[in-house]
TrEMBL record:
It holds the Pfam family ABC_tran. This is Peptide ABC transporter ATP-binding protein. InterPro entries: AAA+_ATPase (IPR003593), ABC_Ni/Peptide_Import (IPR050388), ABC_transporter-like_ATP-bd (IPR003439), ABC_transporter-like_CS (IPR017871), Oligopep_ABC_C (IPR013563), P-loop_NTPase (IPR027417). Residues 5-255 form the ABC transporter domain. Belongs to the ABC transporter superfamily. SMART domains: AAA. It is a peripheral membrane protein. It comes from the Bacteria. It comes from Guptibacillus hwajinpoensis. GO terms for cellular component: plasma membrane.
Length: 332
């Protein structure tokens, strides 16, 4: 069985003063061993909440209201905190977006790197220290021995991010979830980190879920791409299908807003408007207030996720005619 992670109809809600609000609305996706799935979309579209739901690391006012999360055939939504803790950092690791809040400020880098190795891999302190030095060297940190004695506040933002990546990769996880892993890094180190993740994916058969807004990173590392908008999946496809034949107007808008140095005539276009508030109920397609192709039907009925090919789906009424034409041709 190649499937590593399967998320089905995930709904994640938050208790607020305005009542219960859903940040993730019926999201479904899967990740195979050795595959990289990139989740893209604007800030606030539910990408990070989706991954935190998988990790069981939601804030205290958050909860999974509905859905299934299966990792290697095991249901994660029914596991208690102790059972999840055994998986986290060992079988499933996460690179967080904000390393200063993810790293403990009162412990040295060495202590925080050794801890998962001693707990999950049963290494001695000496063995864990040697492994920690190797990991820091792998992620491009100079003078790794001296860095073990330093505290997070003594490192730059880019250095802290590399420490987070080293911690996530320490136990050779089966699934790596990376939330904007290269945001704080310069382009040279960014390329090194992406190559390192790619090498480990190849060597270990590791599955990768990468959250990013950088379409350049997506083009470089993704096997498949999942586009999210307002807590929903609006398009899924292979990296080739998404870049060469995007079907959802939102996906087209994201790609149009990226500069293209190979095309001097390319003009960047911003998507008008902004994401709806979580408390804002929108009838029909949630993207229709910002969509240049919106029809009356878009404002009245929520579109299904149309199957365009075995790996390409788009949640847009523009695909309805093509979908039914394809169905008719298949049945005749």
């Amino acid at each position: 069985m190649n499937q590593l992670l399967e998320v089905n109809d995930l709904v994640t809600s938050f208790r607020t003063a305005e009542g219960k609000l859903s940040a993730v609305r019926g999201v479904s996706f899967s990740v195979d061993k050795g595959e990289t799935l990139c989740i893209v979309g604007e800030s606030g579209c539910g990408k990070s909440i989706t991954t935190l739901s998988v990790m069981g690391l939601l804030p205290s006012n958050g909860e999974i209201s509905r859905g299934s999360i299966q990792f290697s055939g095991e249901e994660l939504t029914t596991k208690n905190e102790e059972e999840l803790r055994k998986l986290r950092g060992n079988e499933i690791s996460m690179i967080f977006q904000e390393p200063m809040t993810a790293l403990n400020p009162v412990f040295t880098i060495g202590y925080q790197l050794r801890e998962p190795l001693m707990i999950h891999k049963r290494l001695s302190k000496r063995e864990a220290t040697q492994k920690a030095i190797t990991l820091l060297d792998q992620v491009g940190i100079p003078h790794p021995v001296s860095k073990l004695k330093q505290f997070p506040h003594e490192l730059s933002g880019g250095m802290r991010q590399r420490v987070m990546i080293a911690m996530a990769l320490a136990c050779n996880p089966s699934l790596l979830i990376a939330d904007e892993p290269t945001t704080a890094l310069d382009v040279t180190i960014q390329a090194q980190i992406l190559d390192l993740i790619d090498d480990l994916k190849a060597d270990l058969g590791m599955g990768v879920v990468m959250v990013t807004h950088d379409m350049g990173v997506v083009a470089e590392v993704a096997d498949r791409v999942m586009v999210m908008y307002a807590g929903e999946v609006v398009e899924v496809g292979t990296v080739t299908e998404i870049f060469e034949a995007p079907k959802h107007p939102y996906t087209r808008g994201l790609l149009a807003s990226v500069p293209n140095i190979d095309d001097p005539d390319h003009s960047m276009e911003a998507i008008p408007g902004s994401l709806p508030n979580l408390s804002e109920e929108i009838q029909g397609c949630r993207f229709h207030p910002r969509c240049p192709f919106a029809m009356d039907k878009c404002m009245e009925m929520e579109p299904p996720l149309f199957e365009l090919s075995s790996e390409h789906q788009s949640k847009c009424w523009l695909q309805e005619v093509k979908h039914y034409d394809k169905q008719s041709a298949t049945s005749s």
